[in-house]
Automatic annotation (TrEMBL):
CDD domains in the record: M23_peptidase
Matches recorded under Pfam families: Peptidase_M23
Keywords, sorted A to Z: Hydrolase, Metal-binding, Metalloprotease, Protease, Zinc
Domain of life: Bacteria
Protein name (record): Peptidase M23-like protein
Organism: Salipiger aestuarii
Length: 449
């Protein structure tokens, strides 16, 4: 008897997915008894035969199948409904649209690039305005649009700063909401050797280089960073950073402690989180002074003294210091006092002046606005907001011109200690805070390393 190999194949298709399964069966049968059509159904199960096989015969021919044979089990496949398949195709054909805001972009132009009609763009803009002032739209913000299977927009998302995003849902009614990611502040510490500038040394150590500005603001002329730094000085830094759950950093890092060993002296600075940048400076464990910078985290862009005027081009005396910051950034009083003037002064633009006793005055110039209710005669405390950064008067960019005058004569705000008196300061409490901060620095440093 001649042996033939018969390969039985089954092909199933669903949603454009094909599964082919096959199994070879060895049949002992003459060629003329092989049929392509399916065998007729049996009226009753076959009786077992003597021997190792199972009778699988029909009326046409006997077939011997091995007793161990089991019919192949094919996976159950769901048939894809035509509507569902079409929805899948449409969803794949309309991926989310995304864009990064660049200089000169407007919301309306960006949404039109997402093929959104004029009426929908207007409704989206109104919904976003409920949650966010669109005048604050800045380069780097992200805009995205999700679509329904039929290609119509379903959700518009504007991602702004610090992981915050504004979502507009386009349904029967249009709704907007602000989503603020959960975040926590972690402390970080670093100990480094200064070689070259403070800025470059911080950058090489992976510490935010902007802290060099904080040190310059606080130490001022007490330390001449060009002459006094010989190289090899130890600098300790403790700071906080806001981190999202995914580990990404948001917002600006905030310095809380710094210690600089300079020759035989040790300068230490403690920043208070409660007083808008107020800091206490220690020299060899003794309080040297307290300082309250007028603009927290701003860049010191121009110092006191002779300089080439940025507009007129001639050499002029610069009677204060300038802090570069974004328009609208809050400005704080640097010391307690009484408001003595609010108004305009020629090239100074909009100005607020505060009297500190009978002989000392601070001037805050180029302001874009002052708080509602602030008036001449009001008493203010250190850290209280008295205006916002602007570029009124003679200015080339948004900045604060900060000036200190004693008996009408301008003095260097960074080198003078008259406004940083330590009178009535609890020195015992300050010493205890310093010791606790030193301990915290060591603990965090060990954890980071």
């Amino acid at each position: 008897m001649k042996l033939r190999h018969i390969v039985l194949g089954t092909t199933m298709a669903a949603a454009a997915v094909s599964t082919i399964a096959s199994r070879a069966l060895i049949l002992e049968a003459p060629p003329e008894y092989i049929f392509s059509e399916a065998p007729e159904a049996l009226d009753s199960p076959p009786e077992p035969l003597d021997g190792p096989g199972v009778n699988a015969s029909g009326e046409t021919m006997p077939n011997m199948l091995p007793a161990a044979f089991q019919p192949p089990e094919f996976p159950a496949l769901e048939r894809a409904e035509p509507d569902n398949l079409m929805a899948l195709v449409q969803a794949l054909a309309t991926p989310p649209w995304e864009a990064t805001v660049e200089a000169g972009d407007t919301l309306d132009v960006l949404l039109s690039l997402a093929d959104m009609d004029a009426q929908t763009r207007t409704e989206v803009a109104l919904a976003l305005t409920v949650e966010y002032d669109l005048r604050r739209l800045r380069p780097g913000h992200r805009l995205s649009v999700d679509f329904r299977p039929d290609g119509t927009p379903s959700v518009v998302t504007l991602a702004v700063v610090d992981g915050v995003r504004i979502e507009v849902t386009l349904d029967d009614t249009i709704a907007s909401r602000t989503v603020t990611p959960s975040a926590l502040t972690v402390e970080r510490a670093s100990q480094l050797l200064v070689n070259g500038s403070i800025y470059a040394s911080l950058d090489r150590a992976g510490v935010p280089a902007r802290f060099a500005v904080d040190l310059a603001q606080i130490l001022g002329e007490t330390v001449d960073f060009r002459r006094d730094l010989q190289g090899g000085e130890t600098l300790n830094i403790l700071w906080g950073q806001t981190v999202l759950r995914d580990g990404s950093e948001v917002g600006q890092p905030s310095i809380s402690y710094a210690a600089l060993d300079l020759a035989d002296d040790r300068f230490e600075i403690l920043w208070s989180a409660e007083d808008s940048g107020r800091a206490t400076v220690y020299l060899n464990d003794e309080i040297l002074r307290t300082v309250a910078p007028p603009v927290e985290g701003a860049r010191l862009s121009s110092v006191f003294g002779q300089r080439k005027h940025p507009i007129y081009g001639n050499l002029r005396m610069h009677t204060g210091v300038d802090y570069a910051a974004a328009a609208g950034t809050p400005i704080a009083a640097t010391a307690p006092g009484r408001v003595s003037f609010i108004g305009w002064r020629s090239g100074y633009g909009r100005v607020v002046e505060i009297a500190h006793g009978s002989d000392t005055m601070t001037r805050y110039a180029h302001l874009s606005a002052v708080p509602e209710g602030l008036a001449v005669g009001n008493r203010v405390v250190a850290g209280e907001t008295i205006g916002q950064v602007g570029e009124t008067g003679t200015a080339t960019a948004p900045n604060l011109h900060y000036e200190v005058r004693v008996d009408g004569r301008p003095i260097d705000p960074l080198g003078e200690e008259l406004l940083a008196s330590v009178e009535n300061f609890d020195t015992a409490d300050a010493t205890e805070i310093l010791e606790a901060t030193r301990t915290r620095f060591v603990t965090v440093l060990r954890e980071d390393t």
